Amino acid sequence: MTRGWLVPATAAVVAVTLCRVALLWLDGADATAAEARAWAGAPWLGQLGAPPLTGWVIWLFAQFGDGPVWLRLPGPLLHAAAALILGGIADRLFGARVAALVAVGWITLPAVAIAALGTGPGTVMAPLLAAALALYMKLLDEYRAWVAAATGLFLGLACLASYWAILFLASAVLAGRVFSEARPSRSQAVLLMAVWGAVMTPHLVVGAVEGGLSWAVSGPWGGWGAFLAVVLGAGPLAVPLVLAAERPGNPVVQFLLIFFGPVAALTALSAPLGIGGGGWAAAWLAGLPVALAWLRGKRRWRRICLAVNALVCLAVPLAPVVAERGLLQTLPWVETRAGRGEMSATVLDIAADLKIRAVVAADPELRADLSYFGRGRGVAVHAPGASGVPEARDVLLILRLGVVPPCPTEVMEVAEIAPDHGAYRRWPQVLHLVPGSCLR
Q1: What is the pLDDT of residues 289-314, one digit of tens each?
Q2: Where is the Glycosyltransferase RgtA/B/C/D-like domain (predicted)?
Q3: In the chain, domain spans
Q4: Torsion angle defined by CA atoms of residues 138, 139, 140 and 142, in that order, rounded to the nearest 10 degrees
Q5: Which of 34, 176, 221, 387 is 20 to 30 Å from 123 at the Cα level?
Q6: 267-286 confidence digits (pLDDT tens)
Q7: Bridge partner residues of 178 (DSSP)
Q8: The predicted structure's pLDDT at residue 382
Q9: DSSP letters of 117-137?
Q10: Residue 396 is inside which H or E element, if any?
Q11: Alpha-carbon distance 79 to 120, whole Å?
C-alpha cells in the first residue's frame, strides 16, 4: 500500500468539491422537504422513527447560517470524504493506480452528483460506511481490539444515517461463510457488535416506544429514484462491474461483490415500496472499486467511462443554476427544490392577513416546508388531529385540491394555490378557514 495516489486524487476531489460548493451559492434552490424535516427534528432525537444523524448534521451546519445553502453544504463535503476513504480501500486491495481512479470515480458518479446537491441519508452514510468497510478489512488482517471497536462505531453511526447500512452486517456474515479468511475472531466480532449495539440502542429504544421505525423516503431517492440510482447511478461504469461479476476469479473481487450484490438487489426491488433511501450508496461503495479495477488495463474504455461521468457531474449542478422554465425545471433534482419557499411564503402571508396563528397542513412535505421557511414568524404548524391545535380559534387548514374538508358547513375557502412549476406543480393546495374544534 502506497500514498503516491493521494495527492493527485485529493487535488481532483477538492477541485470538484469547490465547484459544487460555489454552485450551491449560485443556484438559490430551496431546501427539500426531507432536509426541512431533518432540520425540524434536530438537535435532540431527530425525526422519531427515522435515522436521526442526517438531522443532527444539518442542525450543526445550520448554526453557521439559517439559509437553505447551509442545510445543503454537508453534501459535497461528505462525498469528498467518502471518495478519499474509498480510494484508501482501493489502494489496499488493488494498488495506487486504481486508488486514484476510484477516488475520482466516486466524486464524479452521476448519483453522487445529484446527491451532493443536498444532504440526504445516503450522503451522510457514505463516508461512515466507507470508513467501516476500510476498518473491517484492516480487522481481517490485524485482529486488533481497537480496530473492531472502531468498525462497530463507524457502522453504528452509518446506521444512524440510513438503515441500509445494517445490511453491512449481513454481507460480512455471508463473506465469512464463503471465505475463511474473511472471518474475524469470535472476541473481535463480539466487541464489534457490542459497540455497534451501544451506538444504536438509544435510537432503537426511542423508535420502539414511539411507534416503530420507518424506512420510507421522499424526494428523488424514494421509490423509483432508488432503482434508477442503483441501475444508472454509476453511468457507464455499471458495464465493467457486470463484466467483472461474470467471472470473479479474484477473491478480493468476490468479497466486494458480496457487499455489492445483495444491497443493490434489495434496493432495486424495494423501489415500489418507496424505501430505497441510501441503498444506492451502500451498494456502490463496494461496487465501484470492482468496476475500476476491471478497467485497469483498458485505457480507452476507462477514459470513455470517466469522461461521460465527468460531463454528467458538471451538468447536474449547473441545471438548477441555468433553469428558468421549461424542460430543465422538470428534472427531478431541480423540481424537488423549486418553489418551496414561495409556497410557504404565500401561505404564511395569507395567515398573517387573516391574523391566524395556527396552520394545519395535511401534506407532510408542506408541513416541513412551513416549519422551516416560517421560522421566526410566530405561526404554529400542526398535522391534522395533532395536539396543540387551538379549539377556540379559527385555524388555516391546507388540503390538496379535491380533498373535502371536515365540518363543510363551517368552512370558508380562502384561496387555491396552483404553481406552474416547482415541487407543488402536481399538487395544488386549497386553503380553508376552519374552527379549530372541527379538527380535534
Answers
A1: 999 999 988 889 999 999 999 999 98
A2: 51-204
A3: 6-322, 340-439
A4: 80
A5: 176
A6: 878 766 656 567 889 999 99
A7: none
A8: 86
A9: TS--HHHHHHHHHHHHHHHHH
A10: strand 394-400
A11: 11
